[in-house]
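Researcher: Quick sanity check before group meeting.
Model: Go ahead. Protein one:
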Amino acid sequence: MIFPSNPFSSFSLGDRVQRFPPKIEEEKNAYYIQLFISNNGRTKGEYGKDPFIIRFDYCYLDGKGRTVEKQCYIENETTPRCLSGIEYIEKDFDRFFVFRPERYSITSVIDNEIDHSFISVLAEYKHGINDYTLKDKKLVRLEEVFDELQQLVDDETIFYLSNLESYGCLEKSLFNEGMQNHPFAEKLLKIGKRRKRSETRIKKATKNPKKTKKGNPKIKRAEAFREKVLARSNNAIDVTNYVSSREKVTAECKGCGHTWKIRSDHLLARFYCQVCKR
């Protein structure tokens, strides 16, 4: 169904481009920026992928009711090729001696050569932009967009960046555009680095959560064993210092107050006090 055997006439794919998030705090002097990048820049196998910024959306609020909102499709190595049409192929489709073919890994071919800058299937799945989206769009240079935005920035401006790819991908894409040293690009990288650090802290906290007294499994097992002893002895015997079934616990008779040490599994076999025989 993905690659049918019957020939079909060519047709354009639709898109499902995301828009700005609806919740915007109008009282702040802020930039809301949303970036759409061609791919994640991670290369697997022999075909490289160079990330480029496809679209740059921004909404500027000066905190006094004035709003400037714009959507810019960026001119770079990727977008003009998308305008001229890209032929997608299945890698290893025509290769007869491939031991581990990549069955549904798709790239693009231009003039019978593999193109290293293209909108990947994964990126298209995330943001919905493909060559159909760019067909009738006017392209502008990223430098022009940055120069325009830089004029509105002051010391009190707050930045909000929405980027579906990683910080490393953002860094690579700005380098590929030749804009890594632009003052506005430096602001974007600073925001991206802060977000990267906060995401790393969240991941670490999720991966290695601090064990509280309530969530500690050893304490849970000790409490469960104590409740079992109390239930089976009709609240006559209490226990402390539980470690495991083969380690000794401290048992206490609630009737006479006598305490003794006994293995946990042995205590479960005979519930009575050696002094009052209760």
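Researcher: Fine. The other one?
Model: Protein two, sequence then structure:
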Amino acid sequence: MHRPERFRLHAPRSFLAWLEHAVATGEANLDEVSVAEVWALAGLAVLARKNGGDELRLSGGGDRAAMRFAHAVGFDEVVAGQGGLSGEAGQTVGLRRVMAIDVVEGIAREIARMLLPEEEEDETLRSLIYVLVELMRNAVQHSGDPLGCVVAAQRMDAGFRGYERSAVQVVVADAGMGVLEALGATYPDLSDAEAALVKALQPHVSGSFGPGRTGSAFNAGMGLFFISEMAKLTTGRLLVASRGAALLLRGGAGYEQRRLSFLRQRSFPGTLVTFEFPLDEVKDHAALIETISAKAQQRTPERNTSAWVRFEPPPDGTFSYLVRTIAEDVEQAALVSRDQLQKRLFAREAVALDFRHMDVCTQSFLHALLFEAVRISWAVQVPIYVENAAPSVRTGIALVDAYARGG
């Protein structure tokens, strides 16, 4: 008798193998599935979107638990081209389409608040927002999928399906070009999709600038590096499946407990990234970001340490910009950098950035805002003042300062 399929993150091969067969035949039957976690449903939905070319046709009567769960989390709405459902507070955030950068931060905060009610510790909330923003923005900006991405999240309480500790699981999936093609132009020596995934987990790796550099105006190439390091440090799990290859990273308390394994002959027709970590792991978000930043600096060429970014109040009359007005909008950050910061620095005028009310800033956003400005500040020896920066934000700024000068 055929064993019912169970699509769970601790054993993702089952889903990827089933999906390969479904794509090959053009039909996906969820009646074959007894259990499907939300990450698998997001991956299936992004391929079945009606205005996406009908790559997959869905079939089945809907009697199995997996199909009932799919209906409950807005699978049908996403496939039909709608935004999706909101889900159940404290348990599940339904599937949702994301097609524009300017909605990413708001959606990330909404998802985090739904999964983690107000009584939950803020530290886990901050880390969850950070991961969601990085993954969604990366998919919308770099996947090449004209329909954007699909995002969802699920809370796994202790005792549920064998979970010993309560955990939170987030997924972002797209049907775009995949990691190998995205990196291929700047890293032509990449031999295959597996090599591309390994490269993508390293710091300062991007399809928008070449080897030996530490960033372009819009991109630091740090997103997946930070998220993979979070998985390692929080005993979490990270699944990255992308056109021709898939890897599963398991974190652990010590180096010997961490494992990265390739799922041989398994991939995804696009890119699917799932991140899961225990809720009791993040005690201090700022300390976590600081630890990862230190690892990134260790793998960045040594720079002149004469910094012109100053974490202190600016002199009276200094131009000051309230960063919250463009929070996590990378394109707007680059424009503000060019039109407001760089222009004044070239004229040898000091500038100030006010980070009040910003407890989370991703490295991508800070890079877009500061990378070119820091280089100019260093060259003309005119300071950039930073006010009201939370500890984790300050750490991220210091990292940009460290690699921008000479990168």
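Researcher: One line on it for the slide.
Model: Confidence is low (pLDDT under 50) at residues 209-219.
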